[in-house]
Structures are given as C-alpha cells and as structure tokens.
C-alpha cells in the first residue's frame, strides 16, 4: 500500500484552540493589513471574542447578534423570505448536474469598497454586526 496523504502534526498549543490544525487556526485569522467588507464573518465580534478566549464576551455578543437579527426580521413575520430579502452577489439556480437548488455568483463582491472606506447606506450592505 502507498501513503497518499498524512495530516500535519497539530501545533503544541492546539488544545488552546479547540484542537484545530495550524491551517484551521489561520483560516479565520484577522489580518490588519487586509481590508474586508464589513459583512465579512472575520469581523464578527462574537467569533473574535471566542478566538481570543473571552468566553463571557463571546456569549453576550452572540446573544446580541441573534437579538439584532430577530428584530430585523420582525416586520416580515409571516412573509416568504424571498419577498423581503434578495442575495446581493448570488442568484438561485437549478444545478445542472445534481438537479438540486443551488446558488450562482453574479459578480460585484470584489468591486465593493472594503472597510477602509466608511460604511454607507448607498452601498445597500446591511449592518449585520
């Protein structure tokens, strides 16, 4: 038999990071020299707090975000989501191979101003955090 793949050893302190691999630890890393849309999940305050070991803050931030989402959805109770929300960068399609519902990227994400430019209502990007 042949060895096709072998996992890299986990970092010595991986027990402090949910036993993640080095790759997994770096995935959500905030890189100050890069800019992100303000909706990028790397900006989520609950995730940032959790990754920094601030568990109480992470829990309260998660609850705050969930309550914010509930309040946002309240006026639309009983309505189909597709009647009041449309994805900005994707459109629903039927996957030609799987015949399942899927999403197709329609462009525009990379052209949006990132966080180095102030948030603006004219961008029509919701304040989700």
UniProtKB/TrEMBL annotation:
A GO term, aspect molecular function: sterol binding
A Pfam family assignment: Oxysterol_BP
Top-level taxon of the source organism: Eukaryota
SUPFAM superfamilies: Oxysterol-binding protein-like
Coiled-coil spans in chain: none
GO cellular component, one term: perinuclear endoplasmic reticulum
Gene3D superfamilies attached to this UniProt entry: 3.30.70.3490
Protein's UniProt name: Oxysterolbinding proteinrelated protein 2like
Organism: Caligus rogercresseyi (Sea louse)
